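Issue 218. Parser rejects a valid record. Input:
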Amino acid sequence: MSPHDAGGLVARSLSASYGSLIVCRDITLDVKPGEVVALIGPNGAGKTSFIGALAGVVAARGEITLGTTRLDGRSIHMRTRLGLATVPDNRGLFAPLTVAENIRLGSMFVPRNRREAVVERAVATFPFLAQRGATLAGSLSGGQQQMLAIAKCLAGDPRALLLDEPSQGLAPIILDEIVKVIGELKARRLPVLLVEQNYGLVERTADRFAVMVGGRIAMTGGKAELADRDRIGRLFLERRRTTTVH
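Output the parser choked on:
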């Protein structure tokens, strides 16, 4: 049994806020080991804020559990140390550092006796990285930066992965690589929460999905329900009657 089978990522009654402004209300969502759950919705629905609440960068109340470990109330660094990895929409890279240096930073919480093997596995996820170790991250193309951002997170040997808009600005050939890697992560029994606007990517990767509108979950379902684009589109239009933020 994989160590990731000990449990997935669960949010219970999670609300996120910026000061007095509540942007996500009472969200309950789980991602099982080896499962991809997509969080979709119109711009401003609160999806990125929800990811931020899970990661600890947005103030929140509610319960967050990774396996048997409570994450709520812990710092960003402690959540990372405990296995929650995030690829933010800005990719979270250190542009003045090299590819190799970025990946090494991603592995900083891995025990030293395992670090080399974990880093090698992360680099092997995107083979081009092995030839670009001395290249500055800021000089890579957008697609290459996205691949590096994912590899940097995988170098931390995470127990769950949050992906915020990974398809943004990517060419189709790079998108195919991302789809392939997500499939490999599922095979490793890693829970993956995917925030995504690209419906095609969601259809190709997600086992389940949730539609967020106005900071609340308006619909959940599996692949069969995902095919009902008309119903989902109508839910997206609800944003016109709701005040929201990202």
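Fixed in the parser; the record now loads. The longest strand covers residues 21-31.
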